Amino acid sequence: MTIAMKFLGIFILCFVLLLNSSLGQGRSDKFNDVKINVDLFEIMDSSSRMVGDLTIYKDARIDRLIQKHIDYHEEFPFIRGYKVQIFASPDKKAALDMKARYLARHPDDKIEIDWAPPYWKLRIGNYRTIWEAKKKQQELLQETGTAYVVPDDIEVSDLD
């Protein structure tokens, strides 16, 4: 690259920067825009509101898509979420005993026994986010000593 090419590149860069800064001086900044918007709302009062009709035109396919979504979730009321697993054993009786002991201490918690050969697993709760499940996991670690957050299908009806 020759010296003339370097000077031409520097000149073009300086020109672009100078042009950009000079064009930006005439623009209003964000604070001026906010001030103008606030002034407009201060001018309007409740007596000057307009009353009229609003017509919304939409494609009929939108309603069909919404209905399809509703029908799907009525038929399959599950979404991907998280549960906290506190027990796994090949012994079904041990899993049932653990469930009974847990429900005696926490009657309001939702607990399921899941059979995934060769293990019977106890899973608690229906959590939409991993952070909700981790909070419950920390509580259960104090009590049971073992608790794992696991991805699972959760019931939509159980979500708040």
Helix and strand layout, with pairings?
Layout: H1 3-24, H2 30-43, H3 60-75, E1 78-89, H4 92-105, E2 111-116, E3 119-127, H5 130-144, E4 148-155
Antiparallel strand pairs: 1-3, 1-4, 2-3
Write out the strand line-up for the largest beta sheet, numbering strands in chain order. 2-3-1-4
CATH superfamily of the domain at 79-158: Sporulation related repeat
Mean pLDDT: 79
Look at the structure and give the CATH class of the domain at 79-158.
Alpha Beta
Going by CATH, the architecture of the domain at 79-158 would be 2-Layer Sandwich
CATH fold title of the domain at 79-158? Alpha-Beta Plaits
Question: What shape does the CA trace take?
Answer: flat
Helix content: 40-55%
Assembly level: single chain
Element order: H for helix, E for strand: HHHEHEEHE
Description:
With 160 residues, the protein is an alpha+beta fold. The chain has five helices and four strands. It has helices spanning 3-24, 30-43, 60-75, 92-105, 130-144; strands at 78-89, 111-116, 119-127, 148-155. The protein has a four-stranded antiparallel beta sheet with strand order 2-3-1-4. The longest helix is centred in the N-terminal third of the chain and has 22 residues, at 3-24. The protein is flat and about 85 Å long.
Would you summarize the structure shown here?
The chain has a domain of 80 residues: Alpha-Beta Plaits (2-Layer Sandwich), CATH 3.30.70.1070. The chain has five helices and four strands.
